Predict the 3D structure of the following.
Amino acid sequence: AIARAAVSKCLDFPSQELTNTSWAFAKLQFEDPHLMEALSAAAVRRIEVVDAQALANLAWSCATMQYQNGPLMSSISAAALKKMSVFGTQNIANMAWAIEKCNVHDFPLLEALAAPSLRNIWQATPQDLCNTLWAFARLSVCTDPLLSAMAAAAMNRMSEMGSRGLTNIAWSFAIVQNKHCPLFDAISAPAMRSMHEFNDQDLANTSWAFAHISISHGPLMHALSQAVISHIHAFNPQGLANTAWAVARMEFDDVPLLHAIASAAIPSIRAWDAQNLANIAWAVAKCSVLHA
């Protein structure tokens, strides 16, 4: 009822009410294409008077609802570039995350976001730090100074990181091929302490990250192995294949783990794509484990 009523009133909404409405529906995960179209049209008309936080929230709302609107994102980008000097760490994190999720390759905006990210890195919350790093890594716009600053800030806040934050930091540095050994060492201890909080994706991504960057940490791998076995039936094909690949890549001798992965893979193996099949076959062969 709210959505239907709002559609006809969007053009009368002040800018703050426009962004608040889009944020509220995104937060509730209530998708209404007609409302989003109306909100977008009204937002484009008022974009010049939308402040930094509202711009970031509007972008976040579109990304959360998987709503693709080129003209709206272009308008948000142009307005954000003009207001970059007043973007806070949460605004930066939300905007960077939204750009990645919406598959918007707006490199001028991303480069502009990097400057205040570097300047304000020590004020970022652990979640904002992780989200910004993840988005920049996904879009391959990480510079060495930014990565060094993010690593230092992350190590300073490591005790505050949850399982997803630890995973995303490791994955982000691995995907951009930055072998920051002190950072990965700092991730290991809290990861082992909070292993009971890791879900299947966290386990697979953490295993993959350490293997991809060629950092072997025996105690962490043993903890990951036990957790993977206990969660094995929650893994999807990519998670199974990536974990098997990580075990083989690090030459981690864990036959029970590979047998558990193989047993979980068999029921759905015919539906696996070529990459996952190749990865698990290579892993089994590399570890000399026969599971026919």
